[in-house]
Amino acid sequence: MTLDTAFMLDHLPDFGHAALVTLAVAGIAIVASLLVAALNSAVIFFRVRGLTWVVCAYVELARNTPLLIQLFFVYFALPSLGIHLSNYATAVLALTFLGGGYFTEVFRAGIEAVSGSQKESGLALGLSRWQLFRIVVLPQALRIATPSLFANFIFVLKETTVVSAVAIPEILYTTTNYIALYYKTYEMLLLMTFLYLLLFLPLSFLLSWVERRFRHGQFGT
C-alpha cells in the first residue's frame, strides 16, 4: 500500500479549517457549560427551594443519556415546537447540555470537599451565605476540582465527533466526506488521526501543567 502524500498535502488546509471548527464548537460549549455548572452549583449550595430537585434531575438526565440522542432531540424535536436553530447552534446547545451536567457534578464534589470547619469559620466571622460561597467555598472548590474539570474539558472536545451527525464540518465529518468523494480511506484516516493528536496532546500537557501550578500554589513546592 502506498499513500498519496500529494493528495494529503493538497487537502491539509481543509482539515485545518475542520480543526478550527472543532475547537470553536468545543470552546463555546465549554464556556457555556461552566456558566451552567456555576449557576447549578449555587442553587445546590443555597438549597433554593423548588430548584434543587430540577438541577438534580437535569444532571441525571444529562449524564445518563447519550449525546447523540440529546443532539437529535434538539435538531428534530425543537423545530416541531417552533424553535428553529442553525446546525452550529444545535451542536453547541447539545454539547452544553451534556457538559453542564458533568461540570455541575464536578463543582458539587469540589464544594462538598471543602471542610465544614472552613464554612463554620466563615459564618462565625460574620460572612453572609453569599460571601461565604464567593470568598471561601468557591475558590477552594475550584482548586480541588481542577483535575476533574480539566479531564472533562478533554471529554467535551472529544465529543465533538458526534456533532458530525448534524453536518457540522468538523474533523470527522470532513474525513468521512472526503472518503466518500475520493476513496482515499487511508490518507484521510491518517490525516484525521494526526489532527486529533495535534489537538489533544498539547492541550493535555497544558492542562497538566496548569494543574501542577494550582497544586503547588496550594501546598507549596
Which key phrases capture this entry?
9 helices, elongated, 221 residues, single chain, mainly alpha
| Percent helix | over 70%
Mean pLDDT: 89
> Which stretches are poorly predicted, pLDDT < 50 over at least 5 residues?
none
Q: Between the first and last Cα atoms, what is the distance in angstroms?
A: 52 Å
Give a verbal description of the structure.
It is a single chain. The chain is mainly alpha-helical. The chain is 81% helix and 0% strand. The protein contains 9 helices and no strands. It has helices spanning 5-10, 12-46, 52-63, 67-80, 87-113, 116-124, 129-158, 171-182, 185-219. Helix 5 (87-113) packs across helix 7. The longest helix is centred in the first third of the chain and has 35 residues, at 12-46. The radius of gyration is 21 Å and the shape is elongated. The model has no long low-confidence stretch (mean pLDDT 89).
